[in-house]
Amino acid sequence: MTFSLDHVVFFGRTWDECLGMYALDEEDLAGRTILDCPGGPDGLVAGGLLRGLDITAIDPQYGDGPELLESRGRTEIASSMKSWQDDPEVAFEPDVAADFERKKIEALEQFLEAFRQVPERFIAGALPALPLEDNAFDLVLSGHLLFLYACLEEGGMMEHDAFDLDFHLAATHELVRVGSEVRIFPTYTTNGPPRRQPYVEPVMDAMREAGHAVELIPARWVQGDMDAFNDVLVIRRAD
Ligand SMILES: C[S@@+](CC[C@H](N)C(=O)[O-])C[C@H]1O[C@@H](n2cnc3c(N)ncnc32)[C@H](O)[C@@H]1O
In CATH, what number does 15-236 get? Predict the structure, then answer.
């Protein structure tokens, strides 16, 4: 049996997990305008505002109110954990699974508090066409959508092909349009043997052709035991 999803799940990582997955330290963020795209229910805006950062998130689901997002977030965590743990090929050890679930709830609760207190920091919008000005941000962080939600045949988690290579190319150009530096995580596959997700290289080629600088650098955060090809794609826009 192959683990798969029919939609993009509404769950997110904590502040510390996000910094690790993007290979960033707090000092790297000070003084920069930051966009979290998609933010989902992660802890980046909450953690960033606590530290005095200028940070905003965007996600197609932010048009829904906090009550709906809270119940969706809690349901998504419970049902995703169940389907994940029911699949012997991807199931975590029980203690790893419990930690995974606890962190998802922690991130959701951090997100909900910030979403209720500073709703203007959460914008409704979807890739590949964000309702944002060119070059609006210094740094754009994009986690757990691109590459991960490619279809199963391409090593992703989706049962269908809504996020094909054309989507990835358009979405990455869009992220670079709004931010001068873009970081995308993960770049590995979750289906089949561990390898680089097949869209990563064509996306890197397209970015290079557009004149941007690209590199893969090791992430510092490991999800479960997925430590192979655990790199973040960094794109720096040509000015
Ligand atoms: C798993 S969450 C990722 C949250 C966070 N970045 C993290 O890494 O923990 C994925 C999010 O992608 C959002 N999403 C789905 N389709 C999208 C699209 N076309 N453009 C932008 N975000 C999208 C979903 O609403 C969901 O909240």
Answer: 3.40.50.150
